[in-house]
Design brief:
Rossmann fold, 30% helix, binds adenosine-5'-diphosphate, glycoprotein, globular, seven-stranded parallel sheet, 24 strands, leucine-rich repeat, alpha/beta, amyloplast, Leucine-rich repeat, LRR (right-handed beta-alpha superhelix), 634 residues, nine-stranded mixed sheet
Length: 634
């Protein structure tokens, strides 16, 4: 067989191979079709398969694979077109791998053992699928109405999707529950995102980047337009180059282009120096600066002939786009453009936000509960008919403990205990804390009143009383608050040097190690539109302890109280939460959390694994945004 380098089809099914294949398989660089079904792989992937980069068809059915035994190298097989995993031991879970297999055409998941519903997020992964085998999957619940199969690309649109679904308990066909959305591979929605920053200031930059990536992954063109701040770190911008120059309001505006996380970004640099201030926000003339930017950006679209379908603006700094567009630019030939406006935080620039709400075609905020909490606000109330809550997500590639250079060993939910133990030791070592197995509470936050400063302080003392360790990474824009925390850090330095560390700065690499090394991440916000910290915590298998408000309420389900509410979302409880904005409130959640760590370690470890396996990526929210973008054009 060593000589057969160009074999096309190889059927090794039913042969009792036990996770090992002839090593000469590795020479078969041309192999297109491989059937290794009905062997005894017991969930192990023969390493010889990893060199078969040309493989288009792979049958792994009947081999006892678990969701995590599905090898990562499958995702590198960009040519893989059909893969069969029927009758393995996937235990009702869709392997994470599908998100990487966007181009897959045929997929066999029969006998999966899916017991509840097909995750709606699968629709994102399966946008090219034209054969889908799902028979004999023992569905007990509904096939999710929003499970959407996208057929992208004209060639595929004409083909029918063969979806084989049979319920074991109810023989009604569920075929009609599928909605099929036909999208052009690109250009249907050209989305221009407006965002004042590339990630330095809180979560907004993260959100714009990761949402744009998710929308782009669904096959649409996305361009981001930003001011070119002099204080911007351009080292993560690829192919940064001068693009053109144009003139507006007697000012020359230089346009630079580049790629950020695979997204195309235009940087506008007006030569009047409005963005040469050494800061992003916080200048006396911020309204003038961002007003100028919004106007200049619309002018740029017009002068360069860019005609997006959607302009998606975020918060007060890009609010003027909505009325400048409707009052002026709509009449200058950009007539098919629709404006979507997203509120990330109503605390800042409420007046501008109110005006943008009135002018935009659709408005959103970043969680369902926050949308309800602000619905009575006089600037929101008149616009409720076009106002929706769509949860933010996190980018699972950016936050990925399996692939993170800032933590000591890669881990997934399979080896979460081992991975987190190593990360905790590395964190203790780095911060000079006692290296011992104690419950560790992490806090990563801007230190502002919104984030529940008094509750944070209380929780630090409470954790120490319970013989735990605390690490706080935070910085305060307000110098008075910063100095309060500097004092607290000094006090703790003398009283609890081996168990508490406050790092009062912004440090993203360190945040990764804290997310990985902490047992709990505390988010006691007074209000929280969505919150990313609790989502990132779960991605790293840390258990969120949160106040029940806004997006925290929508994403964290208390182990003792929220079983039913979690189930309604197709989830299981994943953390601890409390109501009041006072010390007894925090104590109620924190005490239960720490007690579980001390007294029920197996249950705690299982909870970490479960939290890690929940999907808080953009898969689902990106589809909601797509629906919204489509609705704007109806
Ligand atoms: P907000 O946008 O209100 O600050 P979010 O929870 O939406 O709150 O986003 C906060 C983001 O900023 C998270 O990704 C968190 O990890 C990060 N972050 C906050 N403070 C720091 C810090 N001091 N160092 C590093 N990252 C931080």
């Amino acid at each position: 067989m060593g000589l057969l380098q160009k074999l096309k089809v190889l059927d090794l099914s039913n042969n009792g191979f036990q996770g090992i294949l002839p090593s000469s398989l590795g020479n078969l660089t041309e192999l297109i079709k491989l059937n290794v079904g009905f062997n005894r792989f017991n969930g192990r992937i023969p390493k010889e398969l990893s060199s078969l980069k040309k493989l288009e068809f792979l049958d792994l059915s009947n081999n006892c694979f678990s969701p995590f035994g599905v090898p990562l190298f499958l995702s590198e097989m960009v040519r893989l077109k059909e893969v069969y995993l029927s009758r393995n031991k996937l235990g009702g879970q869709i392997p994470e791998i599908w998100e990487k297999l966007g181009g897959i055409l045929g997929l066999g998941l029969s006998g999966l053992g899916l017991v509840e519903e097909i995750p709606s997020s699968m629709g994102v992964y399966l946008r090219n699928v034209c054969y889908l085998g799902l028979d004999n999957i023992e569905l007990e619940g509904e096939v999710h109405e929003e499970f959407t199969v996208y057929t992208a690309g004209e060639e595929l649109i004409s083909r029918t999707i063969d979806a084989y679904i049979r319920r074991s308990k109810d023989s009604r066909s569920t075929k009609n529950s599928f909605t099929t959305v036909d999208c052009q591979p690109s250009g249907l929605a050209r989305v221009a995102d407006w965002c004042p920053t590339l990630s330095q200031v809180g979560g907004l930059g993260d959100v714009v980047t990761s949402l744009s990536r998710a929308v782009q992954d669904l096959g649409h063109n996305v361009d981001i337009i930003l001011p070119k701040y002099d204080c911007m770190n351009l080292s993560n911008v690829k192919d940064f180059q001068f693009h053109r120059s144009y003139s507006w309001d007697r000012t020359e505006v230089k346009v630079w282009t580049g790629k950020v996380e695979g997204l195309s970004v235009y940087f506008l640099e007006p030569q009047n120096g409005l963005f040469w201030k050494g800061c992003i926000y916080g200048c006396k003339n911020d309204a003038e600066r961002f007003g100028f930017f919004c106007h200049a950006a619309l002018e740029f679209l017009l002068q360069s002939g860019l005609h997006p379908d959607i302009l998606h603006c975020h918060d007060w700094s890009s609010a003027p786009v909505s009325w400048l567009f409707k009052d002026h630019y709509m009449h200058y030939g950009l007539s098919k453009v629709r404006v979507v406006f997203t509120i990330h935080n109503l605390e800042f620039g409420a007046q501008l936000i109110g005006k943008a709400m009135a002018y935009s075609d659709k408005a959103t905020t970043v969680s369902h509960t926050y949308s309800k909490e602000v619905s009575k606000n006089p600037i929101i109330a008149p616009q409720l008919h076009k106002f929706h809550g769509i949860l933010n997500g996190i980018d699972p590639d950016i936050w990925d403990p399996y692939n993170d250079k800032f933590i000591p060993i890669p881990y997934s939910s399979e080896n979460v205990v081992e991975g987190k133990r190593a990360a905790k030791e590395a964190l203790q070592q780095r911060l000079g804390l006692k290296k011992s197995d104690l419950p560790l509470v992490g806090i990563i936050t801007r230190l502002t009143v919104q984030k529940g400063i008094h509750l944070i302080k209380h929780a630090i003392w409470r954790t120490l009383e319970r013989n735990g360790q605390v690490v706080l990474l935070g910085s305060a824009p307000d110098p008075r608050i910063q100095s309060e925390f500097v004092n607290l850090a000094n006090q703790l330095h003398s009283s609890h040097n081996d168990r508490a560390r406050l790092i009062l700065t912004y440090d993203e690499p360190l945040s990764h190690l804290i997310y990985a090394g902490a047992d709990f991440i505390l988010v006691p916000s007074i209000f929280e539109p969505c919150g990313l910290t609790q989502l990132t915590a779960m991605r790293f298998g840390s258990i969120p302890v949160v106040r029940k408000t806004g997006g925290l309420y929508d994403t964290v389900f208390d182990v003792d109280h929220d079983g039913g509410r979690a189930q309604e979302q197709g989830l299981e409880p994943n953390g601890f939460s409390f109501d009041g904005a006072d010390p007894p409130g925090v104590d109620y959640a924190l005490n239960r959390a720490i007690s579980m760590w001390y007294d029920e370690r197996d249950r705690f470890n299982f909870l970490c694994k479960r939290a890690m396996e929940q999907d808080w990526s953009w898969n689902r929210p990106a589809l909601d945004y797509m629906e919204l973008y489509h609705a704007c054009h109806k």
